[in-house]
Structures are given as C-alpha cells and as structure tokens.
Design goal:
Layout (H helix, E strand, L loop, with lengths): L2 H15 L8 H18 L7 E8 L2 E11 L11 E6 L6 E8 L1 H27 L19 H9 E8 L6 H20 L13
Antiparallel strand pairs: 1-2, 2-3, 3-4, 4-5
C-alpha cells in the first residue's frame, strides 16, 4: 500500500463502512494503523520528529469526517489544540483535503460553539497572510466538508491553507510526497513566525 492508495481506500470505502459498527472493521484499522504507517513512510525523508495519528471516530461511532494528521510534538500532540497538518475526507465528494489547520475543540471551549467559527476564520486569515509565500503552492483558501455539525464546521473554519485531491490525483505518489514536503515547510514556517500568536488590535503582541 502507498499513501495514495491508503487515501483512496478511505475515500471510496468510508460511506459503505459507516453502515456497520466501527469495532473490528477493516477500514477503521486502515485509518488508525495502515494509513498512518504510509504517511510516516512519506515523511521519512523529512527531518522530524513527527507524530502521526488517524481517527475514524470514537467508541461505537464513526466520525462524520475522518482524518489523518501530522503533529510536531513541540507544537501539539492533539487535533484539539495548537496547529497541525491534516488530511480531511469530505462527506459530499470523492476527494481529500490536505489542510494546515488550527485546533478546533480548544477554540470551541474558549469561545463557545457560536463564536468559535468567527474566531477561527479571523485567526486563519491573519495566519494565511503570515504565510503568503506559500499561497501559490498551497492555494486553497477555504475547504468544504459537506457535513453539518460542530466539528465538521469547526474544521472548515480552522483551515489556514492547503490543497484538495480528487481521486485521479491520488495515483501520483511523487506529487503527494512533494506536496507533503511543502506543507511541512509551511507548518514549520508558521512555527518560526510566531505560531498562533497574533498582534492585538492595539498593535501589541
């Protein structure tokens, strides 16, 4: 299995897999183990360390939007806070988004479910400006996940920049590795340029 093959399996098999319980399901194992292994292999030529995790959901429930994430442990080890790279699988189309994203749950806890989206979008716009040199290589200003709910809508709001792959794109393994390297470079650039810390409206840090 390659990274592209693992991503394709998740895209193609997830809608039908959700009709069965996730416990013991082979696709749940792909998302938790197989796909992270392929992503670690793709990251191997890039100096780490990286923590890679995949989530098909929790307990007896499939996630509305499964994900496969790369964390810099010095920044965060969880999708709930900080910022990280993540492959997100939309519910309404056969595609996958590669997103440099902010932690959604931490924003919801801090600002409440109603205000969190506005906060994340405003923060994301400022962070995108901080990474303007990556605008051409990671051109997606927004993503759509095609699923209502606090978390899917939070993921959309938390997006900073990235790319979208349709199914035919996933056959180009070299492109996937090349794009991943660029995304890691953007992730690291954000770290060196201040991370999520932004100037306040009065101009102070």
């Amino acid at each position: 299995m390659s990274l592209g093959h693992a991503l394709r399996r998740i895209i193609e098999e997830y809608p039908l897999a959700r009709l069965d319980p996730p416990a013991g399901h082979p696709l749940a194992s792909v998302i938790r183990k197989g796909a992270p292994e392929e992503l670690r292999a793709a990251l191997a030529p890039i100096d780490g360390p990286f923590l890679v995790k995949g989530s098909p959901g929790r307990g007896s429930q499939w996630a509305a939007i499964p994900w496969l994430a790369v964390f810099d442990p010095a920044i965060t080890t969880s999708a709930t806070r900080g910022y990280y790279l993540v492959y997100l699988f939309p519910a309404h189309r056969e595609a996958v988004h590669l997103s440099l994203a902010q932690g959604t749950v931490a924003a919801i806890r801090s600002y409440g479910p109603t205000a969190a989206g506005a906060h994340l979008r405003a923060s994301g716009a400022a962070l995108k400006a901080r990474l303007s040199d990556f605008a051409d290589s990671l051109p997606n200003a927004t993503i759509a996940l095609g699923s209502a709910g606090e978390l899917p809508e939070g993921y959309e709001a938390a997006h900073i920049l990235g790319l979208t792959y349709d199914l035919p794109d996933l056959g180009d393994e070299r492109r996937l590795h090349r794009d991943l390297a660029v995304a890691v470079a953007a992730y690291r650039a954000l770290k060196t340029r201040g991370g999520l810390d932004l100037p306040r409206s009065d101009g102070t840090a």
